[in-house]
């Protein structure tokens, strides 16, 4: 089960979905950055993100999922949301979510990480660049890291030096966004910045290999291996 809290970010209302594990805590926390599936109208209709949040909660993490597309009407097209997306607005969303999660009695504010899939994978990288208090970052097949998004914003990859936590990455070698070359570029940027990272790259898997609700993309064996690794990574770093 989850509950929803609505907060205001720059005069725009944003829903944050909370999933809590059993017990009083304080629990380690995770900000889960959603992907942007076709037909997406809100977290309540995003089966994959809801199920992923539930799984993290079942493994002992308090999870907050911010609706980072609140800047536009829910009925607006996915094409507009992609093209009008702004990193500066998203950084505000993630900071507000972090503060909200960290302020909960059931959450240990010193043990909060961020995870994201697809579009959310890029957002998780962005969050690590802007929130130095984060203790861990995991990104699943996040593309467009080399691109700027929004006016007067640098490409997200250029902010690698701001990351203050270890990073885990999970990628399919058949993916083209990010491509294996893009993944190599991200690894080089993290190495140059002195950021500890572990990247896992899977053969016979492409973009969205964890999306159980997309039979064409889903790779069950690969997905479960990645689940095992990301839970171990978060468990290690959010101690």
Q: What is the fold's blueprint, element by element?
A:
Blueprint: E1 2-9, E2 12-19, E3 27-33, H1 47-58, E4 62-66, H2 78-84, H3 87-102, E5 107-117, H4 119-130, E6 136-140, E7 167-172, H5 180-192, E8 197-202, H6 220-237
Parallel strand pairs: 3-4, 3-5, 5-6, 6-7, 7-8
Antiparallel strand pairs: 1-2, 2-4
Helix pairs in contact: 3-4
Summarize the structure.
With 239 residues, this protein is an alpha/beta fold. The protein has six helices and eight strands. It has a single domain (2-237), classed as Rossmann fold, CATH 3.40.50.
Strand content: 15-25%
Per DSSP, the total helix count is 6
- N-to-C CA distance: 25 Å
DSSP, total strands: 8
Rg, Å, rounded:
16 Å
